[in-house]
Amino acid sequence: MHSLVKRFGPGLGSLILLGVAVWLVGMVLAPNLMMLDFSLRPNLTPAQIGGPDDHYTLVNFSALFADPVHRAIFFKTIWASALVMLTTLVVTYPMAFWLAKVATHRAVAWVTVALIIPFWINEVLRTLAWYILLAFNGPLNVVLVGLGILDTPMRWFGDAGVLAGMVYAYILFMLFPVYNSISTLDSAQIEAARNLGASTIQIHRRIVIPHAKAGIATGCVFTFMLAAGSYVAPALLGAPGSRWFTEVIYNWFFEGGNWNRGAAYALVLLTLCMVVVMATLRIFKVNLADVAK
Fold first, then answer.
1. What parts of the sequence cross the membrane (predicted)?
2. How does DSSP classify residue 88?
3. pTM higher than the cut 0.90
């Protein structure tokens, strides 16, 4: 705070601090407190609000774990989000290393532009593109059947379709943090390790990955949170047997009309996501200050 006031002066510095405080209170703290209040109250008719039945209770939270279907969807969303996170890391790590240490500046510029341009389009439209691609008579099945790999078209919608759509949707949130971390690594360390006889796997395991752990942790945090809170990809690319927990929350709010139950479900998801994120930072031995960088 002192450095901000010293840098921008007391007037502008105080204004910036006030703007940040208003944003945190109005956009972060207040909505979550309202959500907490909703989640601790029973679903009542307008006439019952303020009456003897209007009191704090944990029934909305216990209902989640008492319902075997919703409980299974909840835990499936958590491990599936972790799978999306790991798949995205596996896909982007080689690309990030190539961009940071192998590719020329011209190649980096062209690849970066090629990756960013599709993201100028709304996420819903990009997901619809995957819907068309994975359709029963879509381009993917046409190519696979034409090459003789498949005898008949397959239905790709379900867990596989959601995984593919999410990896594509959140690839940049993993790629850029990992790329930025690897780009700060001195290439001389890699050359020295190679001259001393280290294999490619040893170079990445002992030099590149430890150096890029802050970027990897940042990408994992972003990707996991986005995947766990995603609604568009599961709704468009999923199947009845591959429902996401966000779809259950949506149904409570907008179809079931039970905002109290939906708020409780949303808070449980938020809490567990925060636990997973903190565990990820602990595993990588990275603190929040490193992620903020």
1. 12-34, 78-97, 128-150, 156-179, 214-237, 262-284
2. H
3. no
